[in-house]
């Protein structure tokens, strides 16, 4: 029933360029003393109050930002719950620490609120690898298919979609569509799409994008680590390659993997996702041992340390600057925003019916 396709080239060069730009910003953000860090933290807390703003951070951002969000009445979570929190919270200004599609999603859902980000160039290789014009042309070739896109896409790509999904709910949405007899276009993550297709048996045409972090996990090295830690449970995010997923004890979203660490009886876990998640995992299970799943280690970049370079662009300095100067605001053309709202709202309404 499946139909695999390679509808567009994956754009290695723009992704490499964006990683290089991220590395420059990361160096600036990391280069602060302990005193400066304390001053920035105090200043950000003041500014959040002054601006009636709340900080919403993703699990993959630095521990500094996650702690700040938790201490100031903000929220740390995956992209779906970040969107939910931002919509339900009364603050009229949201500061989104994450990557740009997360800020855009907040704006799409909350046009009356002001949305700021520490750095608007915080990209995502899935978003970069799915340009709206090429994606629209692909969809035009398959008008009989329901278009399902992952949250990690631009507002323009979402505007073309029938459904937006996150990794936590993708299986349920695709099963729901399959039960209705729908054929599907899936974009942009090929690994997650392949996993969902295998689990549901749905007829899916897959866009061939990938996450540079999860795509780098290696099954052969993971097997060796598993031999060294035979009692460890292996936790894998479904953006990882198929042969890595095949070794997992648990395949799940970020929220699902944190829950697994807290609830499974194992003392040791091998974790195949961005290591920013370790902050919340350690809080959830302080006595357990967490090991990073091995990846291909391509040089001294953040890719080799299993950490998203674009998430790491979010720092205390640029967060303080965005709040102080009210810069880096997310703005979306209203026509696009209204179209993109429909599939996101569909997701949120569907999620509300699930337990
Ligand atoms: S970790 Fe991967 S999917 Fe997540 S924002 Fe970074 S590049 Fe995108």
Question: Could you characterize what this model shows?
Answer:
- This protein is of the alpha/beta class and 355 residues long.
- It contains 17 helices and twelve strands.
- It has helices spanning 12-30, 34-50, 63-71, 79-88, 100-109, 125-128, 132-140, 155-160, 170-179, 190-200, 219-228, 242-245, 254-263, 278-284, 309-312, 316-325, 334-353, and strands spanning 53-58, 75-77, 93-97, 114-116, 146-150, 163-165, 184-187, 204-206, 233-236, 250-251, 268-272, 289-292.
- Strand 5 (146-150), helix 8 and strand 6 (163-165) form a beta-alpha-beta unit.
- Helix 2 packs parallel to helix 16.
- It starts with 11 loop residues before the first helix and ends with a helix.
How would you briefly describe this protein structure?
With 355 residues, this protein is an alpha/beta fold. The chain has helices spanning 12-30, 34-50, 63-71, 79-88, 100-109, 125-128, 132-140, 155-160, 170-179, 190-200, 219-228, 242-245, 254-263, 278-284, 309-312, 316-325, 334-353; strands at 53-58, 75-77, 93-97, 114-116, 146-150, 163-165, 184-187, 204-206, 233-236, 250-251, 268-272, 289-292.
Percent of residues in helices: 40-55%
Please indicate the count of domains: 3
SSE topology string:
HHEHEHEHEHHEHEHEHEHEHEHEHEHHH
The proportion of residues in beta strands is: 5-15%
Poorly predicted sequence stretches spanning 5 or more consecutive residues: 298-304
Main sheet specs: 4 strands, parallel
- Could you say which structural class the secondary elements and strand pairing correspond to? alpha/beta
The CATH superfamily name of the largest domain is NadA-like
The molecules bound to the chains, other than polymers, are:
iron/sulfur cluster
CATH class membership of the largest domain:
Alpha Beta
Strand order of the largest sheet: 2-1-3-4
Question: How far is the N terminus from the C terminus?
Answer: 29 Å
User: What is the general shape?
Assistant: globular
Strand segment tally: 12
Proper CATH architecture of the largest domain: 3-Layer(aba) Sandwich
């Amino acid at each position: 029933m499946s139909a695999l396709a390679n509808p567009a080239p994956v754009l290695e060069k723009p992704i490499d360029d964006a990683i290089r730009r991220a590395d420059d910003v990361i160096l600036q953000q990391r280069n602060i003393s302990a005193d400066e860090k304390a001053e920035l933290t105090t200043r950000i807390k003041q500014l959040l109050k002054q601006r009636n703003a709340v900080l919403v951070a993703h699990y993959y951002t630095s521990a500094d930002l996650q702690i700040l969000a938790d201490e100031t009445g903000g929220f740390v979570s995956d992209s779906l719950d970040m969107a939910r929190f931002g919509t339900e919270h009364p603050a009229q200004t949201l500061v989104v620490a994450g990557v740009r599609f997360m800020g855009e999603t907040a704006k799409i859902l909350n046009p009356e609120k002001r949305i700021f980000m520490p750095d608007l160039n915080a990209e995502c290789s899935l978003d970069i690898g799915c340009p709206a014009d090429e994606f629209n042309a692909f969809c035009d070739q398959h008008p009989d298919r329901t278009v399902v896109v992952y949250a990690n896409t631009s507002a323009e790509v979402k505007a073309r979609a029938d459904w937006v999904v996150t990794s936590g709910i993708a299986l349920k949405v695709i099963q729901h569509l399959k039960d209705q007899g729908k054929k599907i276009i899936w974009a942009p993550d090929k690994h997650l799409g392949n996993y969902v297709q295998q689990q549901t048996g749905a007829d899916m045409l897959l866009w061939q994008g990938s996450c540079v972090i999860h795509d780098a996990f290696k099954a052969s090295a993971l097997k060796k680590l598993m031999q060294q830690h035979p009692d460890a449970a292996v936790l894998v995010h479904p953006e990882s390659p198929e042969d890595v997923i095949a070794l997992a004890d648990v395949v799940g979203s970020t929220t699902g993997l944190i829950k697994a660490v807290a609830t499974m009886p194992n003392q040791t876990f091998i974790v195949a996702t961005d290591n920013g998640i370790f902050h919340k995992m350690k809080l959830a299970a302080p006595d357990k041992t967490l090991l990073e799943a091995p990846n291909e280690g391509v040089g001294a970049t953040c890719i080799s340390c299993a950490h998203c370079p674009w998430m790491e662009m979010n720092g205390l300095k640029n967060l303080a600057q965005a709040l102080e100067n009210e810069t880096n605001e997310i703005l979306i053309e209203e026509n696009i925003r209204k179209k993109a709202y429909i599939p996101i709202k569909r997701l949120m309404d569907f999620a509300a019916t699930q337990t």
